[in-house]
Design goal:
Radius of gyration: 18 Å
Largest sheet: 5 strands, antiparallel
Strand content: over 45%
Number of helices: 2
Helix content: 10-25%
Number of strands: 8
Order of helices and strands: HEEEEEHEEE
Length: about 180
């Protein structure tokens, strides 16, 4: 039994070393494509060479599971020519709080409550309370992202639904490149 445990532990260690992350992510843009009546990202700016997100995010209404749902789709443009192709990675449309609870692990490392934001990322209360939230020097931290990611530009399109109607659409574009060592 001890021999099996040692073999499994060694395998996990070697596997983890072989599949360590070898990419970095820069935020390129955050755009409201439609609707700011429910959530408004328009006061967030990207500053400096590091493209850190700074400004305010306004949640204009309490966002509850019974009325609001979220869909997130991803698209890849490896050549940077604007020809994005949809990827199979997405968040299926589901109640907003359930989506935040299920997928917040991908943004927790970037948005640290009390450090660079006052938005309650984890645990995220339900309903998500309306309010004006700050973000300060936020960069894309990939701690809990997949080990293998496509290089080039990655676009996430977040669609917020209110009572089964599209309420707003936000686009976030990041650039994924090999780590400079």
């Amino acid at each position: 039994v001890a021999h099996e445990f040692a073999s499994v532990s060694l395998f996990k260690f070697v596997f983890k070393m072989l599949l360590k992350k070898n990419y970095e992510v820069r935020i390129i843009s955050i755009k409201e494509l439609s609707g700011t009546d429910y959530v408004d990202f328009t006061n967030i700016r990207l500053l400096g060479r590091e493209r850190t997100a700074n400004g305010t995010l306004e949640v204009k209404k309490d966002l509850s599971d019974d009325l609001y749902s979220l869909l997130a789709e991803t698209f890849s443009d490896p050549n940077g020519n604007g020809e994005f192709k949809q990827l199979p990675m997405f968040i299926p449309r589901q109640p907003i709080c359930k989506a935040m609870e299920s997928y917040s692990k991908y943004i927790e490392a970037s948005f640290k409550y009390g450090v660079n934001t006052d938005f309650p990322v984890h645990p995220c209360p339900c309903p998500i309370p309306k309010g004006l939230y700050y973000v300060k020097n936020v960069t894309a931290q990939t701690d809990d992202w997949p080990v293998i990611m496509p290089r080039g530009f990655l676009k996430a399109v977040l669609t917020l639904y209110y009572d089964n109607e599209v309420a707003s659409t936000t686009e976030i574009v990041v650039q994924i490149s090999d780590l400079s060592e």
